[in-house]
Write a structure and sequence with these properties.
Largest sheet: 7 strands, mixed
Structural class: alpha+beta
Order of helices and strands: HHEEEEEHHHHEEEEEEEEEEH
Distance between the termini: 62 Å
Strand content: 25-35%
Radius of gyration: 37 Å
Number of helices: 7
Length: 389
């Protein structure tokens, strides 16, 4: 069999027979359909290409079996109407442990009532009793062997009260109310009174992060000094008993762990307005441990969460029996873990999609062009027949 015969037989399998150029008719309608279909093909191709270049995320659900991890809490809060010196930040977990290891991670920045930053460097917040720091500072300028008055609250534990904190603690152990700090010489000397007066009409920006045990617990921002008494967390609000606090606050950011792509934090950029003074805001947070595996193999251990809110006005001001004014975040962890894995989309799926776009539009455009052409021919014939009659 010669080559010419082979080529002749292969021509019988041609599914795309061609017509002669002389028998082709080009119309204005066909040109319009071609331009529109070409634009549509290009737009859909770009859309398909963008979809192919994005990463595919595969979610999976597991029982959380991780051990010994810490829970990182990222917080950024603004209190427009209460000064930094009035607020105390504390974190507790269900084991009863007060987290004291975050003093270098949380900062307070003073704000004026318009929200502008006051020209002071941010102050590191220390959780718990700060009396040891005050004692060291005072000891550098006063006689370390002095014995100052406890103003009637002397006891076997406190025979001498050399700092404002000593007087406060002696009063607390006696069960006495510590109201008038201005009459206490030690409080005047260490600047407690002046600091309170200076920040009376200011706001406060609290930001940073805490690392706590990965168990259910809470962290809160509330007025008054905090301390532990018989393994119970207590806020000393007696010196503030005559004051009302506006706990209006802005939550710029709140998350648990490292941020991952596509993460949604429900409390970010939210604002809560205290319609009444001395309001207790409560946020009940359900944390879901999350693992995010990037395309290059990097693994992020983080969390996502949902939240419900509640607030109530504290009757009787500071000493109301219903609670303490402040902002409280109570969280618990889900026993399940969500795992997200990044994967590259299939190139064959991309190629199939492109072929479907081109073929589909080409076919539909051909049908539309044929309908336009034959309709125009039929109309033209009727017009010609009308003229002839």
């Amino acid at each position: 069999m010669s080559m010419r015969e082979v080529v002749g037989r292969l021509r019988q399998f041609d599914a795309y027979p061609k017509t002669l150029e002389d028998f082709r008719i080009k119309t204005f309608g066909g040109a319009t359909v071609t331009i529109i279909s070409g634009v549509l093909m290009f737009m859909l191709f770009i859309s398909e290409l963008n979809y192919y270049l994005t990463k595919e995320i595969h979610p999976e659900l597991f029982v959380d079996t991780t051990k010994g991890q810490k829970l990182r809490i990222n917080v950024d809060l603004k209190f427009p109407y209460i000064g930094c010196s009035f607020l105390s930040i504390d974190a507790m977990d269900v084991s009863g442990e007060q987290q004291l290891d975050v003093e270098h991670n949380v900062y307070k920045q003073r704000l004026n009532l318009t929200g502008a930053v006051i020209a002071d460097s941010p102050e590191k917040e220390n959780l718990g009793d700060k009396s040891e720091d005050i004692v060291k500072e005072v000891a550098t300028t006063l006689d370390p062997n002095r014995c100052e008055s406890c103003y009637g609250a002397e006891s076997s534990a406190f025979k001498c009260c050399n700092t404002c904190e000593d007087v406060r603690e002696a009063y607390r152990q006696k069960g006495w109310a510590f109201h008038d700090a201005e009459s206490i010489e030690q409080c005047k000397r260490d600047g407690t009174v002046d600091k309170m007066k200076q920040q009376q009409n200011e706001g406060c920006h609290i930001y940073g992060y805490l690392e706590v045990n990965k168990v259910a617990g809470n962290f809160h921002v509330a007025p008054g000094r905090s301390f532990q008494q018989h393994h119970v967390h207590v806020h000393d609000v007696q010196p503030l008993s005559g004051q009302k606090f506006n706990l209006t606050h802005h939550i710029n950011h709140l998350s648990f762990g490292i941020d991952y792509p596509g993460q949604v934090n429900p409390l970010d950029n939210t604002k809560q307005i205290a319609e009444k003074e001395s309001t207790m805001f409560q946020y009940f947070v359900k944390i879901v441990p999350t693992t995010y595996v990037k395309l290059e193999g990097q693994i992020l251990f983080t969390n996502q969460y949902s939240v419900t809110k509640h607030h109530k006005s504290i009757s009787g001001g500071i000493f109301g029996e219903q609670g303490l004014p402040g902002v409280f975040f109570t969280y618990e962890l889900s026993p399940m873990m969500v795992k997200y894995t990044e994967k590259q989309r299939s190139f064959m799926h991309f190629l199939t999609g492109v072929c479907a776009i081109i073929g589909g539009i080409f076919t539909v455009a051909g049908l539309i062009d044929a309908a336009i052409y034959h309709s125009s021919r039929a109309i033209q014939r009727k017009i010609e027949l009308g003229k002839s009659t």
